[in-house]
Amino acid sequence: MSTTAGTSVTFDDVAAAAERVANHVERTPTARARTLSEITGAEVVVKFENLQFTASYKERGALNRLLLLDDDCKGVVTASAGNFAQGVSYHATRLGIPAVIVMPVGTPALKVSRTGVLGAEVVVRGSDFEESAAIAAEVAAERGFELLSPFDDAEVIAGQGTVALELLADALDLDTVIVPIGGGGLMAGMAVAVRHLQPEIELVGVQSERYPALHNLLCSGEPVPEPGGSTIAEGIAVAKPGARPTAIIRELVDRVEVVPESKIEEAIGLYLEIEKTVAEGAGAIALAELLARPERYASKRVAVVLSGGNIDLRQLASVTLRSLARTGRLTRIQVQIDDRPGGLGVITTAVGELGGNIIEVVHQRLDPTLHSRASEVELTIETSGPEHLDAVLAGLRKRGHAVRTDARA
Questions:
Q1: pLDDT at 278
Q2: Which of 44, 49, 138, 231 is most exposed by smallest CB count within 10 Å?
Q3: Which runs of consecutive H residues, i.e. helices, occur in 185-331?
Q4: Into how many domains does the chain fold?
């Protein structure tokens, strides 16, 4: 395979970018994930790009682009859902370059506030990335600033490709590398580097099933209407991938897959609980691909790029609770009890004796389906897992309690 793919991005560009940004971005760690390997059946290696200062790989491409600006540049403008915005904001401020960032309405508050704190002027306008990009072009024309693309730019792509140089230096004998795809800049840059250094490695890109633009384009050969809508992977919620990345990915990448939101949530939860690290939705999607199709990667040595960790705390809390529910460790149960003094104490005592931890209690007396001397209690209980939950439910029924649960019969 060629490593130019009809574009100006070459391995030499990636290597030059690596030298250019080396003293200004983190050389992030690559580590084998033993427990994730046991769960997925593959030998999993994680590239922790969430440990960059701005918690995303995006600052690599942003910095490379900024360092190559003409000396007479008045300032820069870009549109971003958050991570490229932070990379540009941080490094432009550090280099003394005025920067304006246009962010879509609905961008997580953490990303908006962090971008402003890092020094850029933030404009929150546009319903999605495409609208924000159009507004950014208008701002650039009005102010005479340079318009930067977060992914459809050869110098940005080259900067993102530096992730692959570090990965391949640290992880030997890889069979597969799995990379998130939104606009395609990271996948394209890494593909150029990997195909030059180790062309036998399988390259897999991953998108959210709600924003599968590149997947659809490569499968059908022409643009396909996108489902769109809300996604936990808002960092890669791009309806139109860049022309340059698309050309590179079309030639150099083996396949592009899509995964459901549930697998992305599961991956975020596993990173948090097992690896003790925070991944945003876009950052966790490579691991989500492993979870969605374990049979494809069984016994292979697979690297997944954890591309970013900028997730809103409220969203992270929600994902954590849903993860606990999904794994049978947090469950709502409904129990009918006699409406008499001490009735509630009987059921709570029983749950405690069975080892369940009661998180929340809702006492319902007004349900018309209950007889006049009965009430229903909804308990949110914590257990150690599915087997313990089954034991708690069986124990309550053995004591004569009518129990219902959304999770189990």
A1: 97
A2: 138
A3: 185-197, 213-220, 243-252, 261-273, 281-292, 294-297, 313-326
A4: 3
pLDDT digits (tens, 9 = 90+) for 289-347: 999 999 999 999 999 999 999 998 888 999 888 888 888 889 999 888 877 788 888 88
Predicted confidence at residue 367, as pLDDT, reads 59
Answer yes or no: are the C-beta atoms of 242 and 293 closer than 8 Å: no
**Whether residues 160 and 291 fall in one domain:** yes
Q: Nearest to residue 235, comparing CAs of 194, 286, 197, 273?
A: 286
190 located within any domain: yes
Evaluate if residue 180 carries a pLDDT over 70.
yes
DSSP conformation class of 238: -
Q: Say yes or no to pLDDT of 409 above 50.
A: no
113 with 231, same domain: the answer is: no
121 shares a domain with 238: no
Contacts of 89 (CB under 8 A, 6+ apart): 99, 101, 115, 116, 118, 119, 120
Query: What's the pLDDT score for residue 366?
Result: 56
Q: Is 58 known to be catalytic?
A: yes
Write out 133-176 in H/E/C secondary structure.
HHHHHHHHHHHCCEEECCCCCHHHHHHHCHHHHHHHHHCCCCCE
d(CA 403, CA 343): 15
Condensed to tens digits (0 to 9), the pLDDT of residues 193-212 reads 999 999 999 999 999 999 99
Q: Which of 56, 208, 307, 375 is catalytic?
A: 307
**What's the mean pLDDT in 40-55?**
97
State the pairing for strand pair 202-208/255-259. parallel
- The boundaries of the domain holding residue 67 are 59-153
Quick one: how far is CA 178 from the chain centroid? Answer: 13
Say which of 58, 111, 323, 375 is annotated catalytic. 58
Q: Say which CATH number the domain at 177 has.
A: 3.40.50.1100
Q: What φ, ψ does residue 277 adopt, rounded to 5°? A: -140, 155
